[in-house]
């Protein structure tokens, strides 16, 4: 619906400017209005019924809408229809050259190129003479003049300064952004988050151990075997701590890569903390950040090696 939206906006602007013979907001800022006296168009300038001021002839207003609004919309829709049309003819070059739709499409494209060339010539003439700012205005003889010649121009560099500041800021960003190592920043944020999550997990494990110890002691006291119960709790705690040490040591085995979360690790490699990574993930992370920490245990990775064969946990 792009051509229709463009058509609606152009019609809205035409209604409040050309149809009412009034300048647009941009023309008002530049102190410009239609020059009804020097414009050489066909028709007589008549006063408005409501305001009594001079207005453009009706035929000029309608022709301006036809040339500036309806004709570009028709060409855009015709070109889109010809491009989307199915080819009922064979795919041979001879039939394609004689296809009516293809010939019409080429004619429309040629007409667009001619209009663009004429618009460029008109722009050069407007920069030299300052009379007709568009091709449709030249065809209809519409010129612009100063609305109030006696108004003194107030020169303000605020708009230009704003543009200069914005362009300087964008150029600075274009220079600095390629120099920023986004991967290192991402790994740094990941390391901080991993350390925080590891601390939270440690606190949760401690709290669970305390709750288990207290619940075991209370159960043993109720059963009347306080010493045995406490010994059992201590034995269980030592066993759990030993198992936790074995899991947190150099023989920790994880099934997924902590960096890419891929279940099938590519060139599986073991870090100094015991967790395993993809070789490319870990090597690139260590190259980007010398103090890279494991996302699972928040331990700094000092070295990495090819993994050894898995061993069973020691018997207690």
Please describe what this structure looks like.
There is one protein chain. The chain has helices at residues 2-16, 25-29, 58-84, 93-97, 100-129, 135-140, 158-176, 182-223, 226-248, 279-288, and strands at residues 32-34, 46-47, 54-55, 144-146, 268-271, 276-278, 304-305. It starts with a helix and ends in an 11-residue tail after the last strand. A hairpin with a 6-residue loop joins strand 2 and strand 3. It is 58% helix and 6% strand. The chain is mainly alpha-helical. It folds into two domains: 2-147, no CATH class; 182-305, no CATH class. Pathway: Protein modification; protein ubiquitination. GO terms for molecular function: ubiquitin protein ligase activity; zinc ion binding. Its EC number is 2.3.2.36.
Keywords:
Znf_C3HC4_RING-type; Znf_RING/FYVE/PHD; disordered C terminus; mainly alpha; ubl conjugation pathway; single chain; 316 residues; ubiquitin protein ligase activity; zinc ion binding
Query: Could you give a short account of the major beta sheet?
Result: 3 strands, antiparallel
Overall pLDDT level: 73
Which strands sit side by side, in order, in the main sheet?
6-5-7
Question: Number of domains in the coordinates?
Answer: 2
Short description:
The chain is mainly alpha-helical and 316 residues long. The chain is built from 10 helices and 7 strands. The strands form 3 sheets. Strands 6-5-7 form a 3-stranded antiparallel beta sheet. Strands 1-4 form a two-stranded antiparallel sheet. The protein has a two-stranded antiparallel sheet with strand order 2-3.
